[in-house]
Amino acid sequence: MQALALSAAAVEAVGERSGEPDWMRERRREAWRLYEALPLPDPASEAWRRTDISGLRLEELRVPLNGAGPEHEKPEAAPPQVLAAALGAAEDRAGLLVQRDGQTMQAGLEEEAAAQGVLFLDLDQAASKAPELVRQHFLSLIRPDELKLRALHAALRRGGTFLYVPPGVEVTRPLVSVSWVDTPGTLLAPHTLLVAGEGSRVTLVDLFASAGMDAQTVVSGAVELVVGDGAQVRYVAFQDWGTNVWEFGLIRARLGRDATLASLVAGFGGSLVKTDVESKLQGRGAQSEMLGLYFASDRQHYDYHTLQEHLAAHTSSDLLYKGAVKDRGRTVFAGLIRVHPGAQKTNAFQSNRNLLLNAGAKSDSIPKLEIMANDLRCTHGSATSRLNDEHLFYLMSRGLRRQQAVQMVVDGFFAEVLDRIPLEQLRQRVQEEIAGKIAESSQG
Amino acid sequence: MAAQSPLGIDLDHYKWGFREPERYVFKARPGLDAEVVEQISYMKGEPEWMRAFRLHAYEHWTRRPLPTWGPDLSTINFDEIYYYLQPVEKQSRTWEDLPAEIKRTYDRLGIPEAERKFLAGVGAQYESQVVYHNLKEEWEKLGVIFLDTDTAVQKYPDLVREYFGTVVPPEDNKFAALNSAVWSGGSFIYVPEGVRVDIPLQAYFRINAERMGQFERTLIICEPGSYVHYVEGCTAPIYTTDSLHSAVVEIIVKEGARCRYTTIQNWSPNVYNLVTKRAVAYRDATMEWVDGNIGSKVTAKYPSVYMLEPGAKAEILSVAYAGRGQHQDPGGKVIHAAPYTQSSVVSKSIAKDGGRAGYRGLVKVYSGAKGSRCAVRCDALILDEHSRSDTYPYMEIDEEDVQITHEATVSKVSDEQLFYLMARGIKADEAMGMIVRGFIEPITKELPLEYAVELNRLIVLEMEGSVG
Predict the structure, then answer these.
(1) CB distance from B400 to chain A under 8 Å?
(2) Same domain, yes or no, for B130 and B272?
(3) pLDDT value at position A444?
(4) Chains A and B: how many Cβ contacts under 8 Å?
(5) Contact B391/A372, CB-based, under 8 Å?
(6) What ipTM score was computed for the predicted complex, to two decimals?
């Protein structure tokens, strides 16, 4: 396989193979110039001081280039085992898109949805099939100049997921997208663009996975969720990277009038994962539910920054992020509720709960509020605690082994989040991950 | 309603905005350089180690950038501030000996009355120098020392040197460095083992001159099993230019001792109030900060407690009120560095007329501090749509065996509560006042009665006209 270092040449080569229109290529070049101009994040800055990226080796990364010409024309064999495991989370689906190293291997959408005008395909392909929609919405919520790593994403994006649901259309079963990294030492920059038309309904499950890597592998992802007036969207990002994968992601949503978004971010894999999750409530009456569920073990480092941005009156947001930490894992949660002037009658809730499973585990929690309106209700809470000895004792006195007892207590801890996800297979998949984490012997 | 306030708390508008003509025996030129620092040390006739300490701190100050977080401090012009001003030639021991205008000032603030009524001792600082000091004889006999820090350096050099700068080193932050370089006045309190000073000691700080900096330095040492409650109040006249108040407070609470430090800050709305307050608490010791921030243009103050040995306890109670043009950024830090330490933080903030109030705090639990518990509660009331509330609580937990909780709410005064009270014949203004008093009650109930009454009256008066 051909591969290039991060460079202007790689930007051209990736663009060439994507078959994208000129305006997209031009934006890649612009982004590359920004990437070269911008410094790495200041380790002393508020957003980065809890996540040490001094071990990041951007200069050693390669961009894989599979063959020539538009990649989506080269579907390959069935997904291997790691993929099958990821897919277990959503067997019952209305559509499936599978990409390996940013190259589409499998794509499909049920006829009923396709007939109603739903588009669910590779972003490169979408750029030629639905140029207007892509042009209007691609990188409309996320700007490459926000951060060096965002610029890198915009310059070297490969593949990606595009989902469009026309106004009034309802897709009842979830659509599933799988992004799978196969080549160690590479950069993957997946992009998800979801556009939900007025009054539409859809569920998108984004699965990210890889096997363990023998060299640092970097994922710089971006998710844009454009939720139109009155639309109801459920979005799941389920991350199960192998070791040595570092991820820097941003999930940003814009909600129109009376729109509803329910998001879940689940994190189990990777070595270092820093994900920003943001909801901008721009239309009156918009509602955002933001759920997070993560389990750091071994030496995993997870850093979640969330933003509930209330820009209009009568908006509500409800955030619940729960994390367990084991071995020498470390988690950071920094959440901000920002209520802008005029966003009266806002209801905003934010809750972070952390469970430390052993000595050596660390957890930082920073629930912040910036409130510039007065007629509202805003509450946040944070709690960090250990396994409750009495609970364990109670269970073990009834004949359970310690590991089983711990499993039950942790399941109970996460149940508050899981109970709010109406996707049965996904819930089972999450529970398997949790069980696997608890069974892992400590390597710390 | 213009009641005489024993605390100097503003009961109408900023009543203590009056000024007396400046009279001084020595005033340093504006701006700061090593020469001014040397001059201050020379004027005070200090020992060599203190001179070296100041110069070292000055050197660090020049290199240290302004903090990039928190309130905007970029408008402070360090070159225009007067760093030292000595208003009278020597400290008075009796009230009658004070120069007329200083006496008049404190009479208007009600200090002598307060002293007669309920204080064990009182110190008053006017500009940079402590002008009046008194400690009741009974406490003196028990070995309690309550002096201004300059005098303490002369009279108890070894004691001061042992502790000075150990809790807040000059390198701690830019304003601690500034204070360390140019400090003047402040209180030095030493409470011997087992002595309980059961009525409060008070200090009163007053800025009178324009563009004046006030940099008092307070050091409190509580020997094992002792108890002291120290109360400070602050005012300044209103000038068109800004003044700077940058104090450092260091407290050492030894085994089983308890120290309570109460501040009722009511600087005029042109004072930058940037203060570093920190205490260390040893085995089974208790440190309590009660911090009321009503005045000033900008306040950035995060009283902290380092719990260094098992069983240490920390309590921080904070009330902030921000009106027009004010940015109150108070908070607190609790550092759990030993097992079985406990802390609690309660913050209540009120923003009105475009003011900005909030809470910024840190809970740090070091690995090994097992059995630590901490509860933080922050509540904010925003009284109109132009005002703003911020909550920035940081929790860094490196230990598994802990219980840490944080809760915060931001809300307006509920219509139901107002309606309920008004339905019982209470006027809107009064009802609003009652609700706000209820809101800050967890703090006021911890204050000595006189102070609680003052704070309540002040809040109620600030509330006037807020319903409508």
Answers:
(1) yes
(2) yes
(3) 37
(4) 115
(5) no
(6) 0.81
